[in-house]
C-alpha cells in the first residue's frame, strides 16, 4: 500500500498535537523530533483510538461536549494487555502430539496459542495475565524469562529455547494506551465516527478499530472503520468539495 502512495505525501514520525479548522482547510500541528511543523488538509481521518484522539489532540474550535465525552469514555480494548511471542525453527510440539494451545494459572501467561505461519516460521504466543499496573513494576528481562520457563514446562525444554522472542506491552505504548486504559474494561460501544451538528461536521472522521460498530477492537474493526471513514469522506467531498 505504501508503494502505491506518492512518497512526497507520506510523512512518518509526525506526532499530531492540535488541529484547527480554517475557512477552507484543516490546519494540523505536529512535532517531528520535537520540532513543531504545520500542514493543511481538506479533511482529517483519525487513526488513533477515540480516547487517545480526545486526550492527545487539541481541537480548535473544541469538539462538542457530548462527542468529547463519548470518545473519552470509549475503552481501547487491547490497550491494557501484553503479548509474548516465541519463534522456533520448527513446530516440534506437533511432532510430540501437542496442539500448541494451553490455559495456565502458573506463570505470566494465561493463554497460549500456536502462531505458526503456513510455510513460514513456527511460533507460539501467549497473552500475559499479569495486570498492566503490576507489569510496570516487573523487569522486562524477568518477564521474558518467566515466559520461557512457562513454555518449557508446558511443551518441553525445547520450548524454553526460542530462536527469537519478543514481548509487547500495549499498556506502555503511548499511541495505543492512555492512563485510563490500564485496567481491563472489555469492549466498549463504538462512538459516532463523524462529528455532527458542529463546525467539524464533514471535516473529521474516526478511522480506528474502536470506531467500528460491528468489530470494535479487532483487526476486522480497523478495516471496517477505515472503509466507513473513506466512504464518509468521499460523500462529503462530492457534496461540499
List the helices and strands and how they pair.
Layout (H helix, E strand, L loop, with lengths): L14 E7 L4 E7 L2 E7 L2 E3 L3 H7 L1 E3 L4 H8 L9 E7 L3 H4 L6 E2 L5 E6 L7 E7 L3 H4 L4 H16 L8 E6 L34 E3 L12 H22 L1
Helix pairs in contact: 1-2
Feature tags:
single chain; Polyamine Oxidase, Chain A, domain 2; four-stranded mixed β-sheet; 241 residues; FAD/NAD(P)-binding domain; 6 helices; alpha+beta; elongated
Rough outline = elongated
The CATH architecture of the largest domain would be 3-Layer(bba) Sandwich
User: Roughly how many Å is the radius of gyration?
Assistant: 21 Å
The total number of structural domains is 2
Strand order of the largest sheet: 7-8-9-6-10
Range of helix content: 25-40%
Mean pLDDT: 94
* CATH H-level superfamily of the largest domain: FAD/NAD(P)-binding domain
What are the low-pLDDT stretches, counting only 5+ consecutive residues below 50?
none
Q: Give the end-to-end Cα distance, rounded to a whole number of Å.
A: 25 Å
CATH fold field value of the largest domain: FAD/NAD(P)-binding domain
Tell me about the biggest sheet?
Answer: 5 strands, antiparallel
Roughly what fraction of the amino acids lie in strands? 15-25%
Order of helices and strands: EEEEHEHEHEEEHHEEH
SS-derived structural category: alpha+beta
Can you identify the CATH class of the largest domain?
Alpha Beta
Number of helices: 6
Per DSSP E runs of 2 or more residues, the count of β-strands stands at 11
Amino acid at each position: 500500500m505504501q508503494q502505491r502512495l506518492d512518497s512526497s505525501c507520506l510523512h512518518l514520525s509526525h506526532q499530531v498535537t492540535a488541529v484547527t479548522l480554517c475557512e477552507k482547510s484543516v490546519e494540523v500541528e505536529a512535532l517531528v523530533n520535537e520540532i513543531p511543523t504545520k500542514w493543511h488538509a481538506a479533511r482529517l481521518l483519525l487513526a488513533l483510538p477515540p480516547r487517545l484522539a480526545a486526550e492527545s489532540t487539541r481541537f480548535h474550535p473544541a469538539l462538542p461536549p457530548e462527542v468529547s465525552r463519548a470518545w473519552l469514555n470509549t475503552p481501547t480494548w487491547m490497550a491494557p494487555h501484553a503479548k509474548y511471542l516465541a519463534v522456533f525453527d520448527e513446530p516440534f510440539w506437533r511432532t510430540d502430539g501437542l496442539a500448541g494451545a494451553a490455559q495456565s494459572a502458573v506463570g505470566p501467561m494465561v493463554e497460549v496459542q500456536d502462531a505458526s505461519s503456513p510455510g513460514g516460521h513456527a511460533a507460539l504466543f501467549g497473552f500475559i495475565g499479569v495486570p498492566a499496573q503490576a507489569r510496570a513494576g516487573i523487569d522486562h528481562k524477568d518477564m521474558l524469562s518467566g515466559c520461557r520457563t512457562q513454555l518449557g514446562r508446558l511443551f518441553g525444554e525445547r520450548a524454553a529455547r526460542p530462536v527469537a522472542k519478543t514481548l509487547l506491552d500495549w499498556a506502555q505504548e503511548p499511541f495505543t494506551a492512555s492512563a485510563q486504559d490500564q485496567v481491563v474494561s472489555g469492549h466498549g460501544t463504538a462512538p459516532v465516527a463523524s462529528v455532527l451538528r458542529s463546525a467539524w461536521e464533514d471535516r473529521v472522521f474516526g478511522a480506528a478499530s474502536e470506531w467500528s460498530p460491528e468489530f470494535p477492537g479487532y483487526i476486522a474493526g480497523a478495516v471496517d472503520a477505515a472503509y466507513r471513514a473513506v466512504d464518509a469522506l468521499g460523500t462529503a467531498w462530492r457534496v461540499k468539495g
